[in-house]
Each structure stands twice: as C-alpha cells, then as structure tokens.
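WARN no homologs supplied; continuing
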Amino acid sequence: MFKNYLKTASRYLLKNKGYTFINVFGLSIGLAAFILLSLFVKVEFSYDEHLSQKDRIFQVYVKDTTNNIPAFEMQTMGPMGPLMVEQVPEIMASTRFGTMQKKVLKMNNQRFLVDGVRYTDPETLNFFDVQPALGSSNLKLGKSDILLSESEALRVYGSVQAAIGETIEIVELGSFQISGVFRDLPDNTHVDFDYLISFENANDAFFSGVNFAMKKTVFDWGVVSAFPLYVKLSEANLDLTAIEAKMNAALEPHLSNRVTKLLPVDQIYFSDLSHGYFGRNGEKDKAQLYLIIALVILGVAIINYMNLATARYSKRSREVGIRKTVGGHKTQLARQFLTESFIITFIGLVFAICLVELCSPVLSNFVGKSVGVDYGALESYVILSSIVVGVSFLAGIYPASFLSRFSAIEVLSGRATSGKKGAKFRAALVGFQVFICLGLISVTMIVLQQFNHMSNLDLGFDHDQIVGVSLADKGVAENYETFKNELTRNASIESVTGASFSVFDGSASLYMEPEGLEEPVPITFMNVETSFVDRLGLTIKEGDDFSSEGELNRKGIIINETAQEEFGWDTPIGKTIGGYKVIGQVEDFIYGSARETIKPLMIVPSKSGFTYAYVKISGGNVRAAMDHLQATFESMANDYPFDYNFLDDVFAKKYEQEEKLSRVFSTFTILAIIVAGLGILGLSIFIAESRIKEVGIRKILGANIGQLIWLLNSGITKLILLVALITLPLVYHFMSEWLDGFVYNISISVFTMLTPLIALIAVVWTILIFQSLKSANANPVNALRTE
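OK structure emitted
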C-alpha cells in the first residue's frame, strides 16, 4: 500500500514542479538553519559534560561580606586550597591556576611569544582528564618540569618524541624540561592551556617582569587574590551548603568576613561568576535565543507548506471526490497527503544537509568552535530521521485532514468550500509569519543602530592612528628615553608617551580613602608619563595637567569627573586621596566597554617603569611609520618580539559580541523573510483561486484593475497592521530592557518602530502584486463560463 502512496505522490509532485520547488526550497532553508543553529547550541550546552568526575569537581568563589567587594570573586589566595583539603573532610583534593600573559619561550633554537603559560598543581591532570599523547609516557609535573599540548609539540618540534626531554627557557623565569606531552583539550571545556608548569613556581611566575619585590610570597595569606581554585569532593550529591559553612569556618582565622560558594564544573562555562578566566565563557541567554530563532525559521517553513498545500484545494478537491466515489476512505486519503509531505521533507533534508556542509565551516569560523554533523555517530542518523518524521507530520497533518474531509457529492457538484474556520486558521498561520518577520526586522534594526552608535561613540580622547606597543622586553623598557627619542626623529611619528600597563585594554583598581569619606573605595589607577594627558588629547576641565608642574611631583594627581561626583566634592583641586593631592581634573573618557559605567579614576605621573608606549602616527604614510617603529624596537629588544595594537582595533574588539549578534540577526532575518515570502505567495495563490469567480463578476460590473488588486490584497494588509499592533509594543518593551544593559545607548524612536512595518508591507506587496495583476487581467469569461 505504501508503495502505491509513494508512486502516486511522486507523480503528483513531478507534475507540479513549481509547487514542489517552492516547498522543497522553503523547507531546505528552514531545516538547514535549524540544523546549523541546533548543532551550535548542542556544542554550547556540552561544555565539561565529558569530564569523568564532573559531579564531584567544583570551583570555589569568595565574597567579602563587608560589601567592599559586593560580588563573588573567582580569584582566591594561594594558601586557600591546601587549607580546605586539610580542614574540610569532604574535600579530597584541590588545584589552583595562575597565568603568565605574553611570555617569550625559547625552544628548539627559536623564540615564541606565548599568551597563557599556566602554573598549576599536579591534581589538574586528574581533575580535567588530561591524558598523555601517543608517544609520551605518564605525565608528571615537578618544579622544573613543563608539559606541552600535542599540537604545540608538533608545531615546535615536529613530533611528540622529539619534544620529550628538551629544555624550554621562559624569559624572566627560568629553564624547564619537557617531562611529557598531553593530548589537546577538547573544544567543549572551559579550561584552556597548552603549557603547564608546577604551582611551586607561582611566586616567581606571578612577579616575573615586575620592577618591585615583596617580603611575603603568594603562598602567604593577605598578599594577593589571583588564583582560580577547584576542589574535588569525596563523593557526589553531598550537601554543598554544609560544606560551604565548613569552608567559611576554616577561612575565618585567615580572612574574616568571607563566605564561599561552590559552583559545579559543568556550570562554569555559562556562569557570570567565572568572567572567562581561560578565555572561554558562554552566554546562556544567547544560546537559547539562537535555538528559538532556529525553531522559528523551521516553524515558518512548516507553515509555508500548510499554506501552499491548502491553497491548492480547488485543484485537488475533484481528485478527492473521485477517490471517495471509487471507495477511497478518509484515512487512506490522509495517508496519501502525508506521504507527499514526507517526500518533500526528505528531499528538503537532503538539500538542507548540502547547505549545512557548505555553511558549517563559515559558522565554525564565526563562532570560533567546530560545528558540524558527525556522520560516524548513529545518534546523528536517529536525529535526522526524527526530524524528517516530525517535520513531515507537522507540515502535512493539517493539509491531510483539510483535503480529505470534503464530501464527494459537494466536491463533484462544485459546492465544496474551505469554510470560514479554515480561512481563519490560515490567516492565523500567516499572522504568525508576519509576527516573526516584523519582530526580526525591528530587532535587527535596533541592534544595528546600537552597534553603529557604539562604533561611532565619542570616547573623549584622540584614538586615531595611535599604536600601543608592549614594552615587556627589558632592553626596550630600561632604555625607554632612547627608544622614544629614536622614534620621534621620524617625521611620520608625531609623539610618544608611556603608561604602566595597557590602560585601554584593562585597568587596575586600588582601594583608597578620598578626603571626606570614612571608608576606602575602589579607584581605577593609571600610572603614566607626564605627557600622557596632552598626547592623547584628554580635555582638562579644571586645574592643570602634569606638564604645568615643572619638576615631577609624584604625589600630584589628576582625576576624572566621575571621581568628583562619587566623592561628593564641590571642587576637586587641592583634595587628597590617600597620600596624593589632586592638581587637575579631566573630562570623563571611555577606557573600558560601552556596557560599563565610567569608574572613578586617578592618573598618577611617573618617569619610568612603563610597560606600554602609545605612539601617535602623523600624516598618511602609516606603513613607513610602522616599519621605523618595528625596526627601532627590534634593534633594542633582547628577547620579546614586536607586539602592538592600534587603539581603534582595541575598542572595536570590545564590541565584537554586539557585532556578531547584529550579523546573526541580519542573516536569519533575511532567511525568515525569504521563507515567509513563499508562504505569503501561497496565500496570494489561495486568495486568487478562491475568489476567481468574484473577480470575474466584479470586472463585468465595471471594477477597474486597481480596485481588484486592493480587493485581493486588502485582507493581508489589514492583517499586517493588526499584527503590528501586537508586535511593535513587545519589541519596544524587550529591546528597551536589552538597551538598558548599555551605559551609552540609543533611544527607540517612532521612526525606528515604523520603518520595519513600512518595509515589510512593501516586501509583501511586491510578492503579491504579480499574482494580483494576473488575476485582475484575466478574462472573466473563463471564470464564469461554467455557471
């Protein structure tokens, strides 16, 4: 029986090629979008699920209950892990991480700039299932050992075996012997490391490259909180609240007014607490949003099939009548139409998989992780088969029940109609498509406007053609004045000024007590050269800049407007912060992300100790200036390669997530409009076919083409306006909340709300006008000759 259904359905679909093409095209796009985004969401929700002990491993967070630090922080003090193992019975083991940024490693007679050499405890290997690579023996991590990932061993030494036993020198730290090579970590884990040394080196590693020394070490209490801490419990499903209470009690003698929190390892990736220490953190709401978009586009494609199938009821009603007359049952007819749906969905899936294979490399590059169908897994075929069955049933069940319900007598006598109930249902389906398209267009427009607003934001300083150069190399840093003078001899370089760290890519905060306040407050600290304010074009609002002070006054500082406001000062000049005296005030400028409020800032002058130089390039010959800058740096550098960033690029990177979000919405809005456009085309066909006799009569009675076109299209136009009354207020509400997450945001205007509506109406009328003109210009005799 199924063979006959298949044969009949195939004949019908081959005979009606246009109908088949539109359905297959719409479903293939919908299925491809659904599969691609579902694969991405699956990867996002799989982070750390593979760990064999994930139910027992937790990350420790600490909060200061005195409200000086209002939120939980992931950085802990060095002694905390061993203390917890010693005093909390349920904690079996702990491991800590520290990171050295941008260190030069000398290996295999070459120099490599590595961003992220981790120092950690040996327990890390057990916690995160780190396995030796093929050709490496068991992994060990002693004080003089270093472990490499397999990909790094192959890149530097050519093979795993060649790497074992070799010596690596970490500049400003010391030499280490490669004791083992481990397999590359999977993409779906929140930790990330290619080089591991022992935590026994933590103090030397933490203070490597700095210009000061401390009597205490990072292994002492009260020195620094900088290390993410993980613990392993004795068994799963223990009472975390009771364990946290014991940890708080153990911590009290060393750090008072602190509370701890344990976060399961498989929840860290999506947690707001982790701050992406390893550079890997996800946003759960965005992952869920992408899944919703995938379901919406697939839903629009399914609705298209329903509309197109029912739109042809007038052509298929006689087929139904004849089949019923010769003994066909309603169930058999429904199976016939469901078979057609199955064939179209299956063909659509084949094309969708082709689209997935074409687009998955693009998506993988866009999201920075591998996304694709695993054809070697049985699970993939089960899921794809389920998609075919599910989509074909959802797409075909309404047309099957709709077309098979007609009475043979009504059909063959010409009295069969779709009924008001069916018309309302189809209008609801199209209304849903309009809701989706209008919503996506509106949201995309707002996201794009906000991204453009942030990209063109006045940062409050001169950032055009300014290059930030790392001075990590001692040969350059210790001879900064020579380096600076050599650079300014070139006509293409306008000025050079120094700073103690990359002030526009990260900033340090110190707790200090401003005059008039009883408790210390966090203040962003910038240690800069005296020319910094002038060279970067900061605007002095009150007082003087450092260049007016003559002899360097290390205790004379400049603050921003926010500092004055938060400290409650009427005038800042002459006020003190700790042991510093305010000599000037600059207008607020943005040195972080536009999502963050500007913090109180103090700019402290210095003559040396700079780790970054900011070079202003003049004129249009940027290439010549960069060549001179690189040559000068390399002539003075001992170990570190030339490392630089244009400030424009630094700030553009801060808005990378917003740019990606706008591109995602733009892409899938276009897809949704294309797919929904096919559904609207189906509705126009349905309207034209169902009202062909009415159009003929009206034309005979004198109706012109314009009146007939409005007659055919006024219904969907009114439907769009009705849906807009629901959609636009919802968009305004939810996007206003989204914009509230930005300190500098746009306001949603009436123009912003009405433009998507006008655009959608224009697109819909463009689709409808062809079928409307065809119906309006048809000879009425052809429609009425059987009456």
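Residues 296 and 436 are 7 Å apart (CA to CA).
OK
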